[in-house]
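Suppose a colleague, Dr. K., hands you the sequence of a protein chain of 134 amino acids and asks what its three-dimensional shape might be. Before reaching for any lab equipment, you can write down a predicted structure in token form. Begin with the sequence itself:
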Amino acid sequence: MPNATHLPQVPPAAPAATFGQIDKSAARPAGPPDYAEIAQRPEFHELRSRLRRFVFPMSAAFLIWYLGYVVLAAYLPEFMSIRLIGEINIGLVMGVGQFATTILIIVLYLRYAARHVDPRVRALHRDVTGEDPR
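The predicted structure, expressed as tokens, is then:
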């Protein structure tokens, strides 16, 4: 049997918290972040501004494109029925163009958000909560 004097010395354990007491050093922040405080931060205002610089012009351009298609179809049906190749006319090409434009906008937004918005969102989250959002 080994001699008790050769055993490693273990520091005494911290006193256990009694019922109703919380160890503040290990506690996580209670509840959700203070969104009102976050909304006042300059980083949040910059984030919103950066997002608006993409969303508003892109939305306006698409709305004009869509309304142009509808107006042409309603008031210039003879123009929309001009055949390009076989049974394919201008109206059909423009209609399919609406779908293609939607997909293009989605791809552009995803690229824009990944480069300009998401890094700032992660930094703001890390600053507020102290944890990495990934």
